[in-house]
Write a structure and sequence with these properties.
Four copies of one chain form a homotetramer.
Chain A lengths: L7 E6 L7 H11 L3 E7 L4 H10 L11 H9 L9 E4 L6 H10 L3 E4 L7 H14 L3 E3 L7 H11 L6 E9 L13 H6 L2 H4 L4 H17 L3 E9 L10 E8 L4 E7 L8 E8 L2 E6 L5 E6 L4 E5 L7 H4 L12 H20 L14 H19 L5 E2 L2
Parallel strand pairs in A: 1-2, 1-3, 3-4, 4-5, 6-9
Antiparallel strand pairs in A: 6-10, 7-8, 7-14, 8-9, 10-11, 11-12, 12-13
Helix pairs in contact in A: 1-11, 4-5, 5-12, 6-9, 9-12
């Protein structure tokens, strides 16, 4: 039973011992004290689930051996007790069946990215969300950063003028080493097309990069030209992809995503250039936003100041100079989704996506991006429309 | 009642509407999901307490009109239900009576810094902690940063050689504007000697700076020479203090603390130079540690890498490149204290302080520092021993 | 007459009042005190030449009305007095006739980049250099930086392993404003295909970028795919070009060059990733080189340290921490060329290019790059070989 | 004989093989092509002087065995041929006799810092400069940086408001190693009180730091409190000094100078805080100036932009983004002095100091600073007036 009735009740699939992103989701959910984890199936191994649940202080009866049991068991509980939404944090290939089953049982869903492993699955899931009318969130966590909101505000306000050039990078060094040969769980599923899907770094990094770009500029990528590479023996999924972009509004750009870029840890950055100004933001230094205006000194905006927009201020927890990081941005997505779930519980009809919570559409778009980048690369970089 | 029995139960005094640090403490306590806020007296205004408690989803019966009622009410609850420790997040002048009352009622205490407003209070509280045998933590949150632990590890391991020079800065611009004249709560109590105590920026910034320095180098400041300034009309407490330091081991250094340093937000930084190497760490960019060795390229260590020490790894939640910030470091202090409280609950006798939780001794030392810096400044910078 | 007989005697074509790069070349030539400017034709306007020469303290008799007169006049002087090489710093379209005429008269040539405005001219000039046996240098000044040499040394020594990924950027904001409409000389010729040649930013920035890349990695770009843009009304030459690259050794990469990237001043940077390590260097912060090795802390190498290679040390004038900049790197190219000219004067046969002086081959390659990038862009980004 | 009659003719004392700063002065003098080195006595070893002169292409007859011979020999040459000023770049203890002898022979003098080794010498030299009416420059080269001029302009224009706080650092690691035991010439004289004078790092670094501070803020340090340290066995001069400062206008500050600060190369930096704004400048990154205004985003000003003041623009050679460095700033001091010498040659009476050339008064003040810092340190940090 839950003491704090104000909180939204969450279940989780995935995130057992040996996983990475599950613990991140749990902290993100806990941070703002508006969500309570009440149930879970943390692993395909029931013993792992049991240990994980115990370590988290969960009621053993709500640690289920498989996701079907989770959904059935929770659905059988009284409405004021059962979980209200499920967080899906498993390898990519199981997102579809789990999310679909949750929706079928009437649970709202927050799903890790990339949404699913094929365009067909993406569209099927989109249809199911529409049909059930349930809430669905894709955890593009980087959009939760306050200074990303600030950049988006500047761009929407016209401060940069028409967008001419974008540069998006998402560079990691993680897969420069064949960790999968040592049994590393994170590496194993990421290099396995059966679990990761069509894309390697395109799925892991590229889907984030595309979302951040389109979220920021409020404009879609019209078409892309991609060149992908695999260097490590035994791997088949892309480790490194370079792309040229053309925006719907006429601007152009580059994107590069890599998991073999030695020296980069989790280096997602974006630069947007308009006719009059530009912005630069970097995930590893997320509390700052560089804003340049032609002919003026470079400005560095810092989270938490009075000059920041309401969009940024609304997701700011602590004063300027007190750095918020990855978990806080992640928590912003959770909080926005929890607010929507609570509104629904109260009988309202919240929007199915919002500035702080990316919806099913953004999830579908990420899968489309992966599929089209692969298609372009297979056609020697032919320009390929993102439709 | 609390659902998750694994969690340590916390109460809070202070942190109502209009306060800053209380919400920080609540996030810090929630982040690692090992602590549950169950009771509180959030303001001297019972209505504020009621609203704050409701917003937090607390049981109204456990939102008390004053701290005496809080301690009495909780003490009257069954042991498995009542709060186990209280977090004291009020202005400095009330730390002593509240903490003393909590100890008298048998509650462990986590107290914000500076510990109290006079050396006499500090020593009385230290005595009471010893007599009661209860656990006491002072929230010097900056020591919770992973890369501070890494620096401390390097220094302890001898990587720098004997310490020759230290430079500590804690610079803010906050009080460059007379916010107290506009009724800003944060400013009002900070510039009021009746609430803040002897020190202005010495209390707010200086006590952190001293703790960080001594924690890092594992060596005490032997004596100091201070020059303090007040620029804004109507203020009496120090706004800006420059200090020369002499360490017990023979090294020397500077410290500067200010709340009128325009352009600095919360800029706590430390540099330590030994015979062979040096380190630099900066709170606003906390995931990195610069380590220099004479005659070699500068190295930038990044939190979360395999090369980091066990001390740093033990307080690292997420991988390298995914920035942790202010709240995470704060949560590390809370978690360490919660672990000790849970051990005590289980009948063990945990240490009364530790690398991750600063004890009453560190709190006393902070007050001593403030008192001696004021004394030196009043004696035109006479060298004054920190004893 | 020249007092200091040790110095190599230089003439100059271009660089009169209103020009930019001519003064840069003169400082670069003077800095190391091994070259003396003795003659010139600084403008098509003889009066400008006269004034410029007078301001420089030149003998009025050696300030010539046109380049033909310069070459004829100097050729007629005694061997120990006449200029030994000519520096050509005019708009691109006149490089070919001037350089060819100088070679025909027996003068060595240092020519600004891009070498000439068409592949046909480039190959004709290359042939003439071979036939005359004279020395020819193209002022790819960025290769003169000490830390570029250090990076090249690291790569040649195998420290990075096989090259997998390169990222080259050369971003300026200069042409975000239609300066040519205000009669700005720098802008006027740069946006005029008649003077600038095939490429706009490809010529100004791209030729530097390609040279820096190939110089650093010691490997050629095999093919490229380009997408170019023109945004400002009335312009026809590329303002912004994004490229995908494939290296002969199997690595891949991106290049982006722009003169409408608001917020960038002269932002040439390069990143090279190998199997084991990577380097990053940025022209606006040229005294440092970032070197990463997988699994180790990031290292920042600083010019002038004992750990630097002989290649870097050989072009280092002042100790570490005393920044050398753009002019010093430029002077390194001049000095290397002057040394070769002095060796030739002394009867030796110096190499026709070297690590510190880029020869005609590098000049041809730059023109080839411009031509092929334009060709690819005109073919909607078709992969185009750089041959 | 000199070909270029426009140039000012310079002689040099010091700067032979094994020296450092002499070559720097020669580049600084050559860079702007307005000065010609025509004579010298580069070492107390005539053979060293002969070799150095030959390497520089000087007339052997003007390479003199001692400074007395230099002054006598040059004085005997025709006025249009003989050197016009002498650059004194010897160890500190010989500055006085050489400069005095030069003045006595009627030569203008540019002298390296610190001016001389005692206050008595400083005042005697000041008197001689006044009596002879000759021009005298002290090469405080850091004041030659464009962005230092920009900062000075901002402060003079009142952009910062009344100055409240200054922080000056000049940190090097050079003497962390006992180079003097290996015969290193630079180290040998610097640690020898007989050659270096009263101060060690106070002379090398401190005199620059004081000049930069007073130059920037246009206000004098009223009094100081100093604590000095010597760590390396066998040394007697200060290696590291920490100081508290009080300004005439009521502001306060810190200064720290060190040559044993491992990890710092030539790290001179200054921060100035006023009531409304602040600036930060750092010599190792000299093309930028950080300017903060309370409540606004941090601005980074970059040399060479149209928004820069005339003071900065006047010493800017190349466009923004093309870094100028240490030598360029040094050359600015030389150029300003050469302009004054040329004006005097032409019969004018130029000012005896100026924004771009520090005069004898600044030299005296540097020596006063060293003497008073030593005095304060010997009196256990007693506040000591700078008069």
């Amino acid at each position: 039973m839950q003491a704090n009735k104000k909180r939204v009740r969450m279940g989780m699939v995935g995130g057992g011992e040996g996983a990475f992103i599950g613990a991140v989701h749990r902290i993100a959910a806990a941070l703002d004290q508006e969500i309570e984890l009440v149930a879970g199936c943390f692993s395909r191994d029931p013993e792992n689930t049991r240990r994980t649940g115990a370590a988290l202080g969960l009621d053993a009866a709500r640690c289920y051996p498989d996701y079907q049991a989770l959904f059935a068991g929770e659905a059988a509980l009284p409405a004021e007790e059962r979980m209200e939404f499920v967080s899906v944090v498993t390898p990519n290939n199981s997102h579809y069946p789990i999310a679909a089953a949750a929706l079928d049982r009437g649970f709202h869903v927050l799903c890790d990215k990339p949404l699913v492993v094929s365009l067909a699955e993406a569209r099927a899931l989109e249809k199911k969300v529409e049909e059930t009318g349930l809430l669905f969130c894709v955890s593009y966590n980087y959009s939760g950063n306050a200074m990303v909101k600030e950049a988006r505000h500047l761009i929407r306000s016209g401060a940069l003028g028409p967008i001419r050039k974008v540069m998006v990078e998402y560079l990691q060094e993680f897969l420069s080493y064949p960790y999968e040969k040592e049994g590393n769980k994170q590496a194993l599923w990421r290099v396995d097309p059966g679990q990761a899907g069509l894309g390697g770094t395109l799925g892991d990094c590229g889907s984030h990069a595309l979302h951040l770009l389109e979220y920021l500029i409020g404009e879609e990528v019209a078409e892309l030209s991609a060149d992908k590479a695999v260097y490590m023996p035994g791997r088949v999924l892309d480790e490194d992809v370079n792309l040229l972009l053309r925006l719907k509004g006429g601007g152009k750009g580059t994107m590069t995503v890599s998991q073999i870029a030695v020296g980069h840890e989790n280096d997602l950055s974006i630069r947007v250039y308009g006719a009059h100004g530009s912005i630069q933001w970097r995930q590893e230094d997320p509390n700052y936003l560089v804003h340049c205006e032609f002919g003026k000194p470079k400005k560095t905006l810092s989270r938490g100041n009075a000059y920041c927009s309401a969009d940024a201020a609304g997701v700011t927890r602590i004063p300027t100079g007190h750095p918020e990081g990855y978990l806080e941005a992640f928590a912003t997505v959770y909080r926005a989704f929890a607010v929507a779930v609570a509104q629904r519980r109260a009988g309202a009809l919240p929007a199915t996506e919002g500035p702080d919570y990316p919806g099913i559409g953004a999830g579908v778009r990420g899968v489309l991006f992966i599929a089209k980048a692969i298609e372009s690369a297979q056609n020697n970089g032919a320009w390929t429309a993102l439709v």
